[in-house]
Amino acid sequence: MQRMHISDFDLEKTVECGQIFRWEKRDGTYYITAQNNILLIRQHGDILNFSAVRGGSSFVKRYLSLDEDYSKIISSLRKDGLPEEVISSAYGLRLIRQDPFECLMSYVASSASNIPRIKRNLNSLCRNFGRRISLGKFSSYSFPGPSEIFSRRKIENSFRKFGFGFRARFYPQIVQSVMSTENSENADEAFKKFFSRIRRMNYEGAKQALTSLPGVGSKVADCVLAFSLGFSEAFPTDVWVRRGVSILFFNGRNISVREAEAFGRRRFGENAAYAQEFIYYWIRNRKKLS
DNA sequence: ACCCAGGAAGCTC
DNA sequence: GAGCTTCATGGG
């Protein structure tokens, strides 16, 4: 078990706010499976105790965005008019830096679904196509890479068995599209090239590239951009964030998702992704808190 | 029985 | 663009 001093960080909020889906909490300790890694971690005040299959403290710092200047982000959000009630409720929440492929697969599954079901779907996918990995007594399944999923036949049928429903058809279409645009017969190489190309684009180009994929619209694209590709100016807007923006900034007026997204991006600029996570956390927990 | 769930796509207007 | 329906499936 390793040890790290941290400040301005809340592990519970960060893990449980819905950015990631593959985690469990046992006796106050979180077991997070990310790609082919397992991170065991718990927090006592400003101390983090953790252990990981691969990567030590450098992995944890990067994965949990502990290398960012939090007070700078907070003061910027405050200056841009994010209400104090929202800031204090979500304070300590940080963006998790996910693997782009895992993030894309996960959020394609999220459309018109709910978090418990998304978790079940992804766990089913990993149990069947991933590899068994373990850390001490805890064992889990890796998130399968592109070729571990797409070198099989009847991909759509498999995803239906895993409970993805109507979203199942998007998966074979996505790999076909990526392999075609990257001009590669190898799924691993195709996705690698695809994401590294997107990383070098500006926000508009990157979003265009992602939304050209089947099953990837504005919301899913923004999640992948914000949670895995470092585009902090993305403002992923779902029904919850739309509701939150409406209450906080439009006096409860019924605004569209598109309107709320444009507002969030204009208002919060390069910290839009943090603003979005704070608003999401606030709106989903405000009954609990008050 | 009905509605909604971290939406997207394919329509019509 | 905005407004509608459909797409599986599970839970309230």
Can you put this structure into words, describing what you see?
The structure is a single chain. The protein is of the alpha+beta class and 290 residues long. The chain has a domain of 62 residues: Orthogonal Bundle (Endonuclease Iii, domain 2), CATH 1.10.1670.10. The strands form two sheets. Strands 1-5-4-3-2 form a five-stranded antiparallel beta sheet. The chain has a two-stranded antiparallel sheet with strand order 6-7. Helix 5 packs antiparallel against helix 12 and helix 14 packs across helix 15. The longest helix is centred in the C-terminal third of the chain and has 18 residues. The radius of gyration is 19 Å and the shape is globular. It starts with a strand and ends with a helix. The relative contact order is 0.12. The mean pLDDT is 96. The structure holds a DNA duplex (13 and 12 nucleotides).
Secondary-structure map with pairings?
Layout (H helix, E strand, L loop, with lengths): L1 E4 L5 H6 L6 E4 L2 E6 L2 E8 L2 E6 L4 H7 L6 H10 L4 H7 L9 H9 L6 H15 L2 E4 L2 E4 L4 H5 L4 H7 L8 H12 L5 H13 L3 H9 L6 H11 L10 H11 L7 H12 L3 H18 L1
Antiparallel strand pairs: 1-5, 2-3, 3-4, 4-5, 6-7
The structure holds a DNA duplex (13 and 12 nucleotides).
